[in-house]
Amino acid sequence: MTKQLPTLFRDKMIDLLGVEEFEQFLASYDEARLFGIRVNTAKISKEEFLAKSPFTLTKVPWAADGYYYEEGERPGKHPYYHAGLYYIQEPSAMAPVELLAAEPGERVLDLCAAPGGKSTQIAAKLQGEGVLVVNDIHSDRVRALVKNLELSGVRNAVVLNEKPERMLTVFQGYFDKILIDAPCSGEGMFRKEEDMMQQWERHSVQEFAHMQRELLGQAAEMLAPGGRIVYSTCTFSPEENEAQIAEFLDRHADFHVVPVDQFGAGHPDWLRAPWCEEGAYSPRALAEVAGTARLWPHRLKGEGHYVAVLQRVGASAGAVSAEELKERVASAGDADVGVKKRGGREALRGKGRVEAAPHAVSLEPLLAFAGELLRSEPFAAARLVCYGEHAYASPAGLPELHGLKVVRPGWYIGSLHRGRFEPSHALAMGLRMREAKRALSLASSDERALRYLKGETLEVAESEIIRDLEVTKAAKGYCLVCIEEHPIGWGKWHDGMLKNEYPPGWRWN
Ligand SMILES: C[S@@+](CC[C@H](N)C(=O)[O-])C[C@H]1O[C@@H](n2cnc3c(N)ncnc32)[C@H](O)[C@@H]1O
C-alpha cells in the first residue's frame, strides 16, 4: 500500500511533517481500517439503541453519538439500518458537525452535502425543529442525499441542487450555522479509498483551493450576525486548509477562529513557499489559524481531516423554538402555516398552499388519508406545498425559493393523482409509530421483517395490526410497518395478508 502513494504527495508530506513524524504517518497506512456508525438520535435514544445493538461498539471520543464497530460486522445488512436507526460514517468525518454545535430551532445550511452523512448528523442535532437546507452542485450525488435524508426520517430539510452563488439573494444573512464540507483533493482518504490517489493525480490542489475560496466567501454572505461557519476537508495540503482560513480572516474582519483543542493544532508555519505565498497573511490570521484542527491518522483512530470553526461577531438570534417560529411566521401574515393546532382533517383544511401547480390540485384525498391514518398531522406546523402532483411539508420560516433548483422543498408527503393520494416512503420513514392509527411492529428476528424488506407479501393476522379500537376498528387499509416500533415503510392489510409497499429501489438484495 505505502509504495503506491504518489511521489509528489510523499515528498510534500516529508517536507511538512519532517522525516521522523512522516515515518509514523506512513505506518498508519498499513494499519487496519476503522469503521463507524452514528446512532440516529432523531429516531432512537442512544441508550435504547445500545441496549439492542447486535454490534460490538466502542465510543468515538469526539462524537456524541458515534461508535466504532468491528471489521467483519455488517451494519448495512441489518433491519435496523433500514429503519434508519444509525448512519454508517467514518469516525473522523463525525467531528465537523460536533463543532458546528447546531441546536433545535436554528437555521442551518449544509452547502456541499451529498451523500448526506453530515446532513443527517445535523438533522439529528436539530431534532426536527428549525430549518435545514442541504445543497450539492452535482445532481447525480443529490439522489443519494435525498435517499439518506429519507432513510434517516428527516422532516425539516429542503434539498437544493444549486451553484452556491445562485443561493445568495434568497439566503442573504439567513443562516445561524453553515457547514462547508468542501470538495478537496482527498489526501486524507488515500488509506480508505485507494482510487482517491488516481483522482488526486488528475486534479490539482490549486483547482480545489480556488473552489474553496469561493465557497467560504459565499457562505459568509449567507450567515447571520453571530453565526458560525465550520469549514472542513479530508485533505492535508495547507493550500486547502490553513491558507484558506488565513485568507478568509484577512478578508472578513468580523470573523474569528474558535480554537479547537481536542485534536492536532493548525499549522501557520506551513504557510510558506513552495506551498503558499510567503508573507501573504496578517499576524492576526496566522495566530488564529493555530486554533484550527488537524485530525491525523497516526495520532487518533480515524482518517485525516481538517476543521476550522469560524465565528462571526454580532448578536445571534439564537435558537428559535418551534412555537416561536410559528408565531413569527404567523405575525408576518403567512396565513398558510398551521399555527393553531386543530385535530384531524380540520388542521389541514385551508392551510395547505398549492404552489407552482400547473392546475389546481385538490388536497381532499390527502386530508382524507391523514384523517383516517394519522393521530395528528405531524406536518400541521409546516407549510403544505404542492409541486405538480407532489405534496411536501415545508419547514416554517423558509424564504421563497423562487428561481432555485429545488429537489425537495421539504418533507415529501405523497402524490395526488386523479383524486387519489398515495403516501410517500419518506412520510412513513419520518413518522413515529405512535403517530399512526394503524401499525404493525415486527421483531427484527421475525423472518417477516427481512421478507418485507425484500418486497414480499406477508401473512399478518388481524390481531397483529396495532390500533386503538376506540378510534379505528378497521384493520383493512394502509398500515405503518415497523421494526420494533421504528417505521420501515407502508403496507396494505386485507384479510390476513399485507401487501408490500416497500419501494423497489430500496429493497434488500
Ligand atoms: C466532501 S463531499 C461532501 C460529503 C458530505 N458532506 C457528507 O458528509 O456526506 C463534497 C461535496 O461537494 C460537492 N461540491 C463540489 N463543488 C461544489 C460547489 N461549488 N457547490 C456545492 N457543492 C459542491 C460535491 O459534489 C461533493 O458531493
From TrEMBL:
UniProt entry tagged with the keyword Nucleotide-binding: no
Transmembrane stretches, start-end: none
Active-site residue list: C234
PROSITE patterns: NOL1_NOP2_SUN, SAM_MT_RSMB_NOP
Example GO BP: methylation
InterPro entries from the UniProt entry: Methyltr_RsmF_N, MeTrfase_RsmB-F_NOP2_cat, MeTrfase_RsmB-F_NOP2_dom, Nol1_Nop2_Fmu_2, Nop2p, RCMT, RsmB/NOL1/NOP2-like_CS, RsmF_methylt_CI
Highest taxon of source: Bacteria
Binding sites annotated in the UniProt record for S-adenosyl-L-methionine: C112, A113, A114, P115, G116, G117, K118, D136, D181
Pfam family, one: Methyltranf_PUA
Keywords: Cytoplasm, Methyltransferase, RNA-binding, S-adenosyl-L-methionine, Transferase
Molecular function per GO: methyltransferase activity
Limits of the SAM-dependent MTase RsmB/NOP-type domain: 25-313
NCBIfam families the UniProt entry points to: nop2p (TIGR00446)
Family label: Belongs to the class I-like SAM-binding methyltransferase superfamily. RsmB/NOP family.
Protein name: Ribosomal RNA small subunit methyltransferase F
Gene name of the record: rsmF
